[in-house]
């Protein structure tokens, strides 16, 4: 295996190659370029697995491979690869899901006779490549650059059906809202360079290490605007966080994500599970050594996460379209990851990132399968009874739903439980903010269980409620196979990190993910982060007791939510119960009017301002210019009288002028002195 | 001698084109314009200079002969390039050729004159960027205006006369103000200089030879001269509030003239600012850091907000040029490698990308005969290739990484954030950076309305994909933008070599 990490650039380049092939030659190829994408992502996946194995064996890789801009008497701006457990794990996730999405697309796009397939597969290829480039980035600038390319690709794919009105609008919103976040991120990148002279994640110039040493007083770094180091690092951390909040669809920049459902469903799976939305959280994990230094930033991350988890979950309970429910569940689940990161649970959050990638990709592809069957009708109230018609989809979807709801032993249970557990013990250790965030996260578990199983029951159980639901369109192997793979993963992926089992029963060594993430560079491993975080732990009745109580409460709430859904919706003829919510229903349907105020800022504030400025510009600024010119035109018309056309007059004027000029120059120049 | 050859060949090409029959003028002009492209590429390949041409650096392809004597001053024919001017020379030749190609479809009257003027303008632009003697430089500088005046005034839209005269008079008056400022410096230098060669003047100023003049102390004179020159160049750039001639000129100008105006002519202003104000009077510039940074931020934000209010695609791109030029000013005042280097890089990057955008708008206009956002939708359905390049170009304009605009903007932001000219530079940088959000706003809105959605068009014209010779220049520009974005060092290394000596300049008085 020696030297396998040398091939890591190929993981990124293969999908890029498939982008070029699909773009250039896709129209001449069978399946519109799909095969190139499938081949490329399969190759990337195999390489990623090999990389993962090598990293498990203790290898790491941190190498600059390209100088983007060489600074003369200034810092070089470079691209490089950083392969450590975190990025190796993410590489496997991204390439696997990208591969499955490509295969699934054969069923969703090709079999459905869609047009524009080369454009579609080119977009998928570039999307995958950009995300992989982001994952392996060894410095913040490179990360930002690929982060932006990920944004571009999501724009292109969300707006894939550009001949309709909705998708281009949703694509625009997605790019614009995340751009707003990236604005802060870019300032953060610039600030990191200005502060540390380097933006590397690892190695001797790693900026988190420099920051740590600066706080320890070992050397000084540049700070700005008269701030001390702690305050300035907090500012920088929050600036970068702007990009995270935008991409990972956290409150208040989450509004683009539900709209992004306008894109093809496989794209939604890719965006939500492995690429765009994951990018934000991954970034926090990537530079966790920096965030761990500033308690304020951590607290804000935890609060944003906890609040978003609850806030999005409540909106998920009233949605009618299956993909809308999934969209809000994505926002909510990324809230958990943020909560975990903010609460000092680096491994827990990374764990949830992994399990969520599997079960969310599964749920979206499952929803895609249902949508094929329903002839692109997404309304759950038109479905029902699909369980018998499409058993593979049903059981896979059920596996994903159990994972999402957090039912033991499915993947989501373990990771969500660990996130909540870390939040709880660090909250008990003397951080009321974390306890508040914990409470929100815990409450969200109930809603999650409810909306998840409401979705399952409405879609698959009961009697078919429409003609298409009685005679659904069949799906082929290219849809079923990805579902089966992900269905197994959603059921089992959590077993890699059964911390509660370890703690309750004292079985040592089954926290594989902890051990794995500890195998990184000294400054990037989980152990180091655990030392950095500013929290102490507190327990209710000892460690084992806390584990047991935490797990029991969250499992109980999840089951309660699922049970309520069972009572209300697992009936042959379910009816809407949202009326009982009264005016809350209206608020939830309208997503707490978040879209309204953001649209109002754009069209009610910024646009009128720009129109007023336009009037001001044409009236006043240009008015002055034209005014000056009319004054001079008027003067010119008077002056014209001098231009009599008589040559001797001109000669006289010329002589006069020259004399005056010479006199003036002479006086100023002191010739007569 | 290659510079003389370059300028002379371009002049000759212009003359030849003038007398050719209209039928073949376009194709001939295109073929002839490839010669200067080749010449500039040879220059780039054989470039061996280092340092700043004005500050005693090694000048490439230098010629310096006494031309004629004027009082105490020798007028020299002095030309040459350094890392600041060579990229602009290459930009000029390439953009002119592509602009000529993009004229084939829209220009159908007085073709030989049109193409002759385009080449004449190119020759003068090459003179502006290579001249190192003030007199020579000023002659070229003024001579650029004449072809552009006719290009707008003859081949322009309905209000072409107003726009052409406004452009000519406004920028000409500005030149006068600048001229007075510069000449007062020359007087202030007195006997310490014997020619108007720019290196000699810059070095005399550096050596502290400036004395008082006309009752002003040396430093007051420097301030007055700085302000006068700044105002003069500011109109050319243009920066807020001297920008109002630009949208009018762009809207009325035919597409190729717009391409040249935005792509190269605006860079004359920023180039001159760098050469004169920021190189010759660095200490004065630093003392004016606050107002200059304010002007930069105002140009970026105000220009972008105005772009947001426009319905005419060309006005959108025109105002966004004001915004982009604001970044250049921000980079210049930073006085850091990445700041000033990034500003120079932005001149090239914006030249390519704004050229691309104006051409793309032109290609759509050729088919639809309208540029109003409200008049069309879903154009991507009928013109997929053009729309695809339009989208790519627009993202380039928004500063998408791995395209030239991002490199330029990132360099500028980085350079200005860590600048030491003022403690508040991070705040100004942060404020100016908000431009990247607004630019995304107006370009995404414009694309959504015109390119996407169901196809709708109210005109009588049949909408089809543009011919190859219309799309090809777009593709070339897009490719160049990506190449420069992936490998900015193609120009950035030489730019830094020329820029760094400026940063080392200390106070002269």
UniProtKB/TrEMBL annotation, chain A:
Transmembrane region(s): 6-26, 33-55, 86-108, 120-137, 143-162, 183-203, 223-246, 267-285, 297-318, 325-347, 353-373, 394-415, 435-460, 481-499, 547-569, 647-672
InterPro entries in the record: NADHpl_OxRdtase_5_subgr (IPR018393), ND/Mrp_TM (IPR001750), NU5C-like (IPR003945), Proton_antipo_N (IPR001516)
Pfam families: Proton_antipo_M, Proton_antipo_N
Localization: Membrane
Membrane association type: Multi-pass membrane protein
Sample GO molecular function, one term: NADH dehydrogenase activity
A GO cellular-component term linked to this record: membrane
Keywords tagged on the record: Membrane, Transmembrane, Transmembrane helix
Annotated protein name in UniProt: NADH-quinone oxidoreductase subunit L
Protein source organism: Haloferax marinum
Biological classification of the source: Archaea, Methanobacteriati, Methanobacteriota, Stenosarchaea group, Halobacteria
Automatic annotation (TrEMBL), chain B:
GO cellular component: membrane
Main subcellular localisation: membrane
Subcellular location: Membrane
GO BP annotation list: ATP synthesis coupled electron transport; electron transport coupled proton transport
Coiled coil regions, renumbered to chain: none
TM annotation in the entry: 84-104, 125-155, 167-189, 210-235, 255-276, 288-310, 316-335, 347-365, 385-412, 424-446
A Pfam family recorded for this sequence: Proton_antipo_M
Recorded GO MF terms: NADH dehydrogenase (ubiquinone) activity; NADH dehydrogenase activity; ubiquinone binding
Domain NADH:quinone oxidoreductase/Mrp antiporter transmembrane: 132-433
EC id: 1.6.5.-
Alphabetical keyword list: Membrane, Oxidoreductase, Transmembrane, Transmembrane helix
NCBIfam families: NDH_I_M
The name this protein goes by in its record: NADH-quinone oxidoreductase subunit M
Organism, scientific name: Haloferax marinum
